[in-house]
Each structure stands twice: as C-alpha cells, then as structure tokens.
C-alpha cells in the first residue's frame, strides 16, 4: 500500500471516532493530580492545560498526600489550587487512617473544603483493605456522604525507586466489603486488565478508570467483561501523558453513547 | 467547552501529516486463531490511530528460552502474517544466542533468502557475552535491523534478560553496527543514561507506561535521530505508546523523526538491498 492509499483508507477509519468525539461538549477526567512527585519533575499541567486537551473537569488529588504526614495542610493546599482553577479541578482530599485524628481531616474535607471525593493511597500509607481500619474508614466516608477513590498503584513496580517500593493494593477484600455496603460509592484508579478480570471480578458496584488499562483496543475489550456504566475516563496525569487516555478513546471502537458514558455520565453518577 | 474546541485537538493528535511506523509489534495479546487474523486485528486498530506500518516479531506463543524448533515455528507464523499484509508489515526474525548454528541458519532462511528485514533478540541469554557475536556479525552483513530487548528492573531481571549496560558492552564490540535498545531499559531514566555515549545504540520507546518525560529526556540526551517510536502491541495499546510522542514537549520535526525518520534511516539499507518500496 502506498502512502496515498494508506492516508485515504485510514482517513475513513479515523473519521468515525473523531466524529464521535466531536459530539462531546464536556469530558471529565476522574484521575488527575497536582503537586510534586518526589522522583521526577512532572509537567506543569493545570486547568487550562486540561481544557486545551478537551478535558473540561478533573477530579484532582494531591501527590503530596503519598508521603506527607501533615495531611490537613496538603488538603488545604489542594482546595486552594482547585478553587483557583475556576471550577475545572474538583478536589479529592486525602485521608491517612494510620495518622492520629484522621476523622478531623475527614470533617475538614467535607465541611471546610466542600470536597465530594476522598482519594486513598493504602499502599503508600501502609494498610491493606483487609484490615478493620479500612472498613472503618470506608464507613466514615460513606456516612459523611462522600465518594471514595482507591489508587491501586501509582507506577509500574519494575520502575519504582529502589528505596521507595510500593506493591499494588490487593483488591480482593473489596468484593465482600462492598456487598454489605450498598451505599458506598467507590472507584478504583489505575487498575490494570489483570486486576479487573481477577480480584475485581463480580465487584459490579464500583467504578474504574482506564488510565492503566492496556492492550490494543483495551477499553473495548474491558467493556466485554465490565459494565459500561462503571468505566470512566481517567488520565493519571501529570504522571502520565494525558494524550494516552485521550487516544484510547479513539483506538477502541466506541459508540457515541458509550463515549458519553465513559467521559461524562459515569463520572457524574460517581460524584452523586 | 464548545464542541468546536474538541475536534481540532484530536485532529492535531491524529495529524495525518505524521508518517508513523511502529518498530515493536507482536502477534500475542490480540484475538485471532491464525497469525494472519491476528495481524489483521492489529492493523484494524493501527488504522484508527494513523499507523502506516508495523514491524512484527515473535509468534503466537512465546518461550523465554525457545528451542530451535520453537523459534522456527514462531518465525513461520510471522512469515505467514506478513505474507498476508506485505504492504503494511515488516518481519523481524527471532533468534536465540544459546543456539548459534541454528540461529545463523534461521537468519539465512528468513532474512538472506526470505522477506524479513530485522533481528529480534529477547531474554534467553544476556547479550554482553561473545556467544552472540556471530549472530550480530551476520545480521550486519545482511544489513538487518538489530533489536535487543533490555530492562533495568527494580524488581530484578530474568536470569537471561539483558540490561542496557549489557547492550553497551555488545555495542562496543561492533561500533559501526546500529543496534536498538529495546524498551530503553524500561526504567528509562537509567536506560537513556546508560546508552548515551554509545553512539551506535538507538532508543526504543515501546512497552513501558506512558510516563511523562521519557521522550523529552531521550531527545535531550540522545537527539531525536537516536529515538524510535514503538508500541509493544498487542500487550500494550497503540494509544499509550503514541502518547509518548504526541504528548511530548518537543518540536513537530522531532516527533516526525521519532515516528518514522530514525527507523527509516536504519531500514533503508536493507529495504534498498531487497528492493522493497515503502
């Protein structure tokens, strides 16, 4: 196939996903973050950078929350950054249940910062989902009327700094925990395809994002085994190039209805 | 945001002015009962994201230490796949340096006397030892593109898995032979540094997470003329790996160089020798 024929044929193939994307007036990223990463100078992305990429809102956590003990200050800085974004960034405050007085952090997230989402990092904070403290935390967040995001991993274990290694969160306990907590709104961020088909099998009440779903046609394949109303668009930016998740929407063959579900409706349902 | 703001951004991402060849593709991780079907599936997705040609290597089932019968079978599968799509795919022959005579014979069958244009070396044996030298020497005579998998894993490499440091040792023995550093060592901040001063080594961006900064550092330290786009599909998506280039803060000319120019310059000698128009 010569270059001209290739362009003619692929222009036709690419037209459908582009047309579907064109119809979207908004796009909500459920997996964005601010703050410094200890091991690398990440791109300085903000609300304007996201808007330039067609992302109109982003649920935003703080990378500071992974290793900083003064979580209250981290959440206050996050709230300020989100306020300054003019509504593009929606704050997801952090809670660390092994710190003294974590319930006060939850109160401040809800009452002082008007946060709707809590983002947890169990593998960086040193607890598992099987421990009673996690059930206690989940109940407290649910009782406060907030949704919760659990970040299963931040990066590939093979590339982590040798002195700060954090294995992915074991998600298996979620199945039984969620079965008896129908009111809990839980989203798992950065799950990969293997986790979705093993540890998360049957956990149909929780939401996922697609930032770490890999494989050709990865979103399309995931939707063969996962409810379409429970998969969300998430970039894991600025740690990842946001173009990765945007292009996944083009690579997979998704109808306009599905695109809207993945990029807007499902995230709205999670936010409540 | 107005609807009209979204399309230009995606069109820019999908800009057909970029000519894209994918250095790093496999017949695994994709549905299909035959090699032809699997390559057809890969091309269906490649079309959606504007990739013109795929370099394909390794068969439908992999072994870390393939016997001669095994790698011949895998190469047969690649031959079948590229025969079905000769205008869209190039084949690289899989070899095992633990079996030098059989690997040399496979080079003759698939490259010297067959349609393949490159060599793939994986994780059977680390590449720093002299056992691999006859394979590199013959591949260079044939002008084949040489690709060696590498990783620097925090969690420990496989026993036979090469690091970029191992590849530097090999490249020093063949300073005039271009060799591609597969995955740029995975942990790319280490891999780029390892190969920087060995000018006959080239960085493959494929097969790691789309971590922001990889391409900018590679261009800064190596120059775009030593950096190559690849996906490692079907295990990886095209999207996540294309994003490393589309999303990088580099010039459009540098993106084009990475998407096509560097690989093209490595392939030109063998394409010309074989009379392949591309």
In CATH, the topology of chain B is named TIM Barrel
CATH fold node name of chain A: TIM Barrel
Quick one: overall form of chain A? globular
Distance between the termini of chain A: 51 Å
Beta-strand content estimate of chain A: 5-15%
Structural class determined from secondary elements of chain B: alpha/beta
Q: N-to-C SSE series of chain A?
A: HEHEHEHEHHEHEHEHEHH
Number of strands of chain A: 8
Which CATH architecture of chain B is right?
Alpha-Beta Barrel
Percent helix of chain A = 25-40%
Largest sheet of chain A: 8 strands, parallel
Tally of domains of chain B: 1
Most extensive chain interface and residues per partner: A-B, 59 and 56 residues
Helix content of chain B: 40-55%
In the CATH scheme, the class of chain A would be Alpha Beta
Low-confidence stretches of chain A: none
Radius of gyration based on Cα positions of chain A:
19 Å
Stretches of chain B where pLDDT is under 50 for at least 5 consecutive residues are: 1-7
CATH H-level homologous superfamily name of chain B: Metal-dependent hydrolases
How would you describe this structure in keywords?
heterodimer; A: TIM Barrel; 8 strands; globular; B: 278 residues; alpha/beta; TIM Barrel; 10 helices; disordered N terminus
Layout of secondary structure:
The complex is a heterodimer of chains A (272) and B (278).
Chain A: H1 3-22, E1 28-34, H2 47-52, E2 57-62, H3 71-84, E3 89-94, H4 102-112, E4 117-120, H5 122-125, H6 132-143, E5 147-151, H7 174-179, E6 186-189, H8 193-197, E7 207-209, H9 218-222, E8 231-232, H10 243-251, H11 256-271
Parallel strand pairs in A: 1-2, 2-3, 3-4, 4-5, 5-6, 6-7, 7-8
Chain B: H1 3-13, E1 21-25, H2 35-48, E2 53-56, H3 68-84, E3 89-95, H4 100-112, E4 118-121, H5 133-141, E5 145-149, H6 164-173, E6 179-182, H7 188-195, E7 201-204, H8 214-222, E8 227-228, H9 238-246, H10 252-274
Parallel strand pairs in B: 1-2, 2-3, 3-4, 4-5, 5-6, 6-7, 7-8
Helix pairs in contact in B: 2-3, 3-4, 4-5, 7-8
């Amino acid at each position: 196939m010569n270059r001209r024929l290739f362009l003619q044929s692929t222009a036709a193939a690419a037209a459908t996903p582009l047309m579907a994307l064109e119809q979207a007036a908004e796009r909500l990223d459920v997996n964005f973050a601010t703050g410094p990463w200890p091991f690398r100078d990440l791109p300085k992305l903000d609300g304007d950078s996201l808007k330039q990429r067609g992302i109109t809102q982003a649920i935003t956590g703080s990378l500071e929350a992974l290793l900083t003990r003064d979580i209250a200050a981290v959440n206050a800085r996050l709230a300020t950054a989100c306020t300054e974004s003019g509504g593009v960034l929606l704050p997801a405050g952090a809670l660390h249940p092994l710190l003294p007085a974590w319930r006060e952090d939850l109160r401040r997230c809800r009452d002082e910062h008007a946060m709707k989402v809590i983002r947890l990092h169990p593998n960086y904070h040193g607890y598992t989902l099987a421990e009673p403290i996690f059930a206690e935390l989940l109940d407290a967040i649910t009782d406060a009327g907030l949704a919760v995001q659990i970040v299963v991993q931040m990066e590939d274990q093979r590339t982590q700094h040798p002195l700060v290694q954090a294995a992915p969160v074991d998600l298996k306990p979620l199945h039984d925990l969620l079965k008896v907590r129908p009111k809990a709104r839980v989203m798992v961020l950065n799950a990969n395809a293997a986790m979705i088909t093993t540890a998360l099998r049957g956990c149909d009440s929780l939401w996922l994002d697609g930032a770490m779903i890999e494989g050709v046609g990865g979103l399309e394949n995931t939707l063969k085994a996962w409810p379409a109303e429970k998969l969300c668009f998430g970039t894991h930016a600025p740690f990842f190039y946001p173009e990765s998740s945007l292009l996944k929407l083009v690579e997979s063959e998704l109808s306009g209805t599905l695109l809207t579900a993945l990029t807007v409706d499902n995230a709205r349902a999670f936010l409540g | 945001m107005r609807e009209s703001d979204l399309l230009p951004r995606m069109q820019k991402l999908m800009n057909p002015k970029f000519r894209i060849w994918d250095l790093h593709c496999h017949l695994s991780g994709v549905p299909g009962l035959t090699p032809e079907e699997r390559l057809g599936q890969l091309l269906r997705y490649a079309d959606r994201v504007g990739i013109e040609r795929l370099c394909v290597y390794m068969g439908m089932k992999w072994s870390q230490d393939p016997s001669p019968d095994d790698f011949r079978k895998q190469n047969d599968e690649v031959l079948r796949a590229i025969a079905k799509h000769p205008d869209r795919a190039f084949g690289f022959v899989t070899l095992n340096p633990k079996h030098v005579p059989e690997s040399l014979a496979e080079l003759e069958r698939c490259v010297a006397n067959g349609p393949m244009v490159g060599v793939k070396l994986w994780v059977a044996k680390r590449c720093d030892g002299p056992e691999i030298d006859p394979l590199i020497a013959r591949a260079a005579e044939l002008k084949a593109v040489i690709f060696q998998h590498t990783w620097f894993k925090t969690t420990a490499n496989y026993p036979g898995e090469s690091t970029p440091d191992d590849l530097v040792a090999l490249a020093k023995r063949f300073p005039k032979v271009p060799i591609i550093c597969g995955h740029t060592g995975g942990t790319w901040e280490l891999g780029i540094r390892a190969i920087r001063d060995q000018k006959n080594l080239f960085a493959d961006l494929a097969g790691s997470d789309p971590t922001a900064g990889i391409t900018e550092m590679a261009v800064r330290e190596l120059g775009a003329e030593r950096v190559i786009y690849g996906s490692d599909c079907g295990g990886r998506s095209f999207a996540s790996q294309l994003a490393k280039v589309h999303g990088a803060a580099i010039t459009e000319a540098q993106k084009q160089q990475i998407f096509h120019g560097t690989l093209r310059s490595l392939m030109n000698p063998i394409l010309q020798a074989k009379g392949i128009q591309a």
